[in-house]
Amino acid sequence: MGFMTNCLRPRHAARAIAAAAVLATTFIAAPAMAQDGLAPAAGSSSATLTDGTQPVVVVTLGSVRKLMDDVSYMAEITSQPQLAMFPMLAATFTQGMDMDQPIGVLVPLVGGAPQPIVVLPTKDIRPILKRLEAQTGPVDELDDGTLVLTVNQNTLYIKQNANNAVAAQNQAALKLAPADASGLFKGMGNAYNVAVRLQIQQVPVEIRNILIDQLRQGFEQTMAQQADAESAREMGENSIAQLERLVQEADELNLGLNIDKANQQVALDVSFTAVGGTQLAAVYGGQQSIPSRFASVIRDDAAAYLHSATSIGPEAITQAKDGIESSLGMIKGALETDGNLSDDQINEIDQYITRLSDIVTESLSEGKSDMGVLVMAGRDEFQAVIGTFVADGTKVAALAKDLATKVPDSPDAPTFKFDVGNFGGVTLHVIEADVPASEDEVRKVFGEKIQVHIGTAPKAIYIAAGRGSDELLKQFITAGSSDTGGDRPLGQFKFKLLPFLELAQSVESNDNMAAMINALTNSQDKGEVNLTTKSIPNGSSIKLTIGEGLIRSIGAAAMAGRQAQQPF
Length: 568
Prior knowledge:
By secondary structure, the protein is α+β, with helices and mostly antiparallel strands. The protein is built from 17 helices and 22 strands.
């Protein structure tokens, strides 16, 4: 195994990680979240500026009242009283504004350049500007009633526009704002504290082509500096091609952050759509929820779970296969240029990597992805189980058996026991390793011996770890035959902080941790974080929620830390 640990030296590993990050960003960064969260606003395409175009970017802030209420709420749950100053400051500078209407920024392209237009909800901007004269200086007025002032050597033009005042650095841009801009804020506004909508198709093709050219120039410059550029070029070319498709075929990107006092959480919604009929839209259209062999991980008593069961369309399969092939080429190139491996070692590693690639590729070719992860935790308790679909589990077992022969024969090496039993059509295997007496914390969690239970089936593999995890694995296998599908998200993740803190505290006590446990014990959500991914027409949506309990626990830990630093 020693030569295998040398196969990815830091220089090559960094390149591989960077390339993988670019690929992952291109392939999945666009997706977003929650069917009931921020999605492309219905009818938003019908709302336009006065010249009939749409803004490239729309940004909204919640109303002054909403912002003040939500910041006060955050001050209370984070134990940060200084935040309570915000409502008083806001009230001072916002007198005369409609306290219940959102504030917006429209960014159209004028002559190819962005021209931000601020939309303030007020029926008369003059009293507000009068109170700000000490900071901005006197306000001038043009013949057409446009107000002009200078802020930090920047000229700002302001004009009353029905029930709103609009402001811009370009006087001509003021005419683009409609008298009623609410249509441009649909799905945003008071639904969020901050929301952003980017309409990619409103950027002229010429500008998008310039962006793509710049990306390619940067790629070529990077390749010129690489000693093993050829091994990385194919992956880079695939990444650039996917970025180009993203730039040309993306339609809308929406983001929204909301402090939700009523539901005692902070939520982030993100949604992404592609232009209908494009290859990118087909990739997202191929993702639909399917019945799952591993849905039993979705349980209320879990400390954490992760589940995903989706169909995969032909376009996504092709992209994934291309990415795998490029990654293999890069890894092989890195091995060949490493200099510390013999030809036999390189060939051996290459064979293992190719076998693993074949397993993944064959699984992708079946047009679906299905996996589940479950973690049970608490005081003196830790168990974890993982299950995932594969096209041929026997190939995974064969690969594992071959790799096991490469483990050095030493007293502290793990032992492998294959084909130790069968349960529910799943062949069981075990990996065992002794925990040294000096590793007291590890022994508290796993005992004197760590056991990893592995199950291989014709269409699945399972892994379980932790005391008693063999029974949890059997429950997991048994439950796999009972799922009938139903309306589920494409993917979902839930994490509760309290059980993990209780586990950590049972291993080694800590005052800050005790403060967090106390705060979470008294909370309703026990420190929950939820992440949900759903399919929407031509795209996907993501919703991330952080429970009030988690935020309170962080505040409690910070307060405990400050108190510990105070002199007696």
